[in-house]
Amino acid sequence: MIETQTVRTRVAPSPTGDPHVGTAYVALVNLCLAKKHGGEFVLRIEDTDRVRSTRESEQAILNSLNWLGLHWTGDPQRQSERSEIYREHVQYLLDREHAFRCFCTPERLEEMRETQRLSKQPPHYDGHCLHLSAQEVQKNLEAGVPFTIRMKVPSQGACVFEDTLRGRIEIEWKTVDMQVLMKSDGFPTYHLANVVDDHLMGITHVIRGEEWISSAPKHILLYEYFGWTPPQLCHLPLLRNPDKSKLSKRKNPTSILYYRERGYLAEALLNFLGVLIDTRNDNPELLRCDSPEALVDAMARDFDLERIALGGPVFDMAKLNWLNGQWIRRYSPEQFMKIVADFGFTWPAKIPQEQRLHIAAVAAPRIETLADFGPLIEFFVEAPEVTRRDLALPKVTEDEAKAALNTAIEELLALDEAQWNQASIGERLKNAASANGRKFKDVARLFYIAITGTPTSLPLFDGMEILGKIESVRRLRAALEALH
């Protein structure tokens, strides 16, 4: 039972690259739990990696989470600004002999690891500096020998803890390494900073990816050393590729920036992540939400941490594309015009103002991402250059294709301007097919390629209505000439 008003969750990304969809996935779970119980959601930037961390990456994280409506309480916390706090806590551990200084050189550590590899032992610190006398430690300090600070770990027994999704987990201490807590540059490692910050920031539930299960004993031991009560632990299943491998940029785009730049709507990506968390979020009613924030609120109302399935959720791009299309189709043509403009689309000058709303109304239901819109309507700007090979049909001879085009031109020329609409155009093109002993579907590809340059595009009759009679007939004649 979770007490209302006591829940405090967090997401803690490292600013070492593009913001990852896995960060948004974890953030969504944490935010939903906090909202469900009237709690708070904290953003902590874990930037203790001084080589790889950048402010540009941090800003991208902030922008991406805000874009998705994953808003946090208060200001973001940065570990790089809390160094003195970590040093005080490391000293506390040293004073109570829960940690020790390690003077091993990188060369010695690499030699140790190589020996372990050759003997097929798991890599672990061998305790070389664990039993240095106080005099030896002092001598090294006076000589300015670089050192790290490692935590002491029991050699017997096991660490036992409860996971919200997985129940009782038991990990033998002999498999747990003597983790470096403070690097030689005076900066903490993730493990120390993570525990200290979670406690001082009042985090009640640590919800993170399952890759951190093996680190849980180190964190629990640190809580014990400090005399603190650990938060409730929950390790989420990792996002997977369709082949069940761990989601990686080698097989799927993983950057939130990619999805924003490719024209995915924030609501669609958020909805998709929600479905990966809980299939109840695959609900058409959610399409009624008018903002990412409203969507988060809707998912939080029905959220239950224990409903998350342990089987790795599959990041299926086909599903995301379909869902993005559903979100696009909920908008009116006028709203869609604004959305593509905000996305960065600029209407070509060749497309008259009075045609744009009609084009938007026809095109919006037929795209999956906003980036598809520009290429889809290019044929309104430039007539396609078609060749005899382009116009070849599997069941129609070239002479039959010429006859169909000839008849189509005659039928369309018989329409006056008042009759030039998609219904009349469709009727005349179907007449042209039947007049030559063919069903329309047999020659539809011929007309599509002549008008748009591709066998699939916007609905043909709508496209020709927008192009107008003169341009449509001109393109059909150009196709006919290409067959001579």
Structure description:
It is a single chain. The chain is mainly alpha-helical and 484 residues long. Among the domains are: 336-380, no CATH class; 398-482, Arc Repressor Mutant, subunit A. 45% of the residues lie in helices and 9% in strands. It has 19 helices and 10 strands. The strands form 4 sheets. A 3-stranded parallel β-sheet has the order 1-2-3, with helices on one face. A 3-stranded antiparallel β-sheet has the order 4-5-8. Strands 6-7 form a two-stranded antiparallel sheet. Strand 9 (205-209), helix 7 (216-226) and strand 10 form a beta-alpha-beta unit. Helix 1 packs across helix 10 (292-301). The longest helix has 16 residues, at 21-36. The chain starts with 7 loop residues before the first strand and ends with a helix.
Judged by helices, strands and strand pairing, the structural class is mainly alpha
Q: Could you list the spans in which at least 5 consecutive residues all have pLDDT below 50?
A: none
Radius of gyration: 32 Å
Number-wise, the strands total: 10
CATH topology of the domain at 398-482: Arc Repressor Mutant, subunit A
- Principal-axes geometry comes out as elongated
- H and E order: EHEHEHEHHEEEEHEHEHHHHHHHHHHHH
Proportion of beta-strand residues: 5-15%
The assembly state of the depicted protein chains is: single chain
Whole-number mean pLDDT: 95
Helix content: 40-55%
How does CATH name the architecture of the domain at 398-482? Orthogonal Bundle
End-to-end separation: 79 Å
Q: Which sheet architecture does the biggest sheet show? A: 3 strands, parallel
